[in-house]
């Protein structure tokens, strides 16, 4: 399935990615206080106004937290999905990953920036928790579950845990398997392990 943005959204995604790459590299080299927004703008070839149209702070730029989310079409497809819930959740996760252009190099740039600025880790974890809650609410809407139903949270947390493991393998030395395939492999393994049919685990 093609999950790449097109037209204007494609240009916006490219601009956000360029700014994020510059911000991450400068953070890894100097720390967050070692450069200015103006320097990011100069290197990325944008104006200060454009920067703040995309990112509220330097922290957000480093974390890739753009104000212009471009996954509305992916969310709509998830809400209308007819495949098993966990499969559609994994697909949504993989599509978001692809759209964010999370290459091995990009992942390592994030790691280098966080190592230089450990306080970014707390912001990153806060962001993950907000995203998790947002996805829980999506599952509740799709499945018609009451707010706070533990099944919605469990579905999101299961796929999130599998995605985290897939990320670790994706960035490991010598790994060449796409993230989506790594995630699917883990989901299939989890389904087999949790199957009530003993022959499927033999």
UniProtKB/TrEMBL annotation:
Taxonomic lineage of the native organism: Bacteria, Bacillati, Actinomycetota, Actinomycetes, Pseudonocardiales
UniProt keyword Transcription present: yes
Keyword Transcription: yes
The protein's name in its UniProt record: TetR/AcrR family transcriptional regulator
Organism of this sequence: Amycolatopsis thermalba
Keyword field: DNA-binding, Transcription, Transcription regulation
Residue intervals of the HTH tetR-type domain: 13-73
DNA-binding feature ranges: 36-55
PROSITE patterns, per database record: HTH_TETR_1 (PS01081), HTH_TETR_2 (PS50977)
Family matches, as PANTHER family: HTH-TYPE TRANSCRIPTIONAL REGULATOR BETI, HTH-TYPE TRANSCRIPTIONAL REGULATOR RUTR
One Pfam family linked to the record: TetR_N
Domain of life where this protein originates: Bacteria
């Amino acid at each position: 399935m093609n999950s790449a943005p097109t037209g204007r959204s494609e240009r916006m995604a490219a601009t956000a990615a360029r700014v994020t790459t510059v911000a991450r590299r400068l953070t890894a080299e100097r720390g967050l206080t070692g450069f200015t927004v103006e320097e990011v703008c100069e290197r990325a070839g944008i104006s200060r106004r454009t920067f703040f149209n995309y990112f509220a702070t330097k922290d957000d730029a480093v974390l890739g937290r753009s104000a212009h989310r471009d996954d509305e079409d992916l969310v709509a497809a998830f809400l209308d999905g007819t495949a098993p819930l966990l499969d559609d959740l994994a697909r949504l996760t993989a599509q978001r990953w692809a759209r964010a252009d999370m290459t091995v190099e990009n992942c390592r740039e994030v790691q280098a920036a966080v190592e230089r600025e450990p306080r970014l880790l707390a912001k990153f974890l806060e962001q993950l928790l907000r995203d998790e809650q947002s996805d829980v609410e999506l599952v509740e809407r799709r499945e018609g579950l009451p707010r706070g139903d533990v099944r919605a949270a469990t579905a999101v947390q299961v796929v999130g845990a599998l995605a985290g493991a897939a990320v670790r393998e994706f960035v490991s030395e010598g790994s060449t398997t796409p993230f989506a395939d790594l995630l699917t492999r883990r989901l299939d393994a989890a389904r087999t392990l949790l199957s009530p049919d003993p022959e499927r685990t033999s």
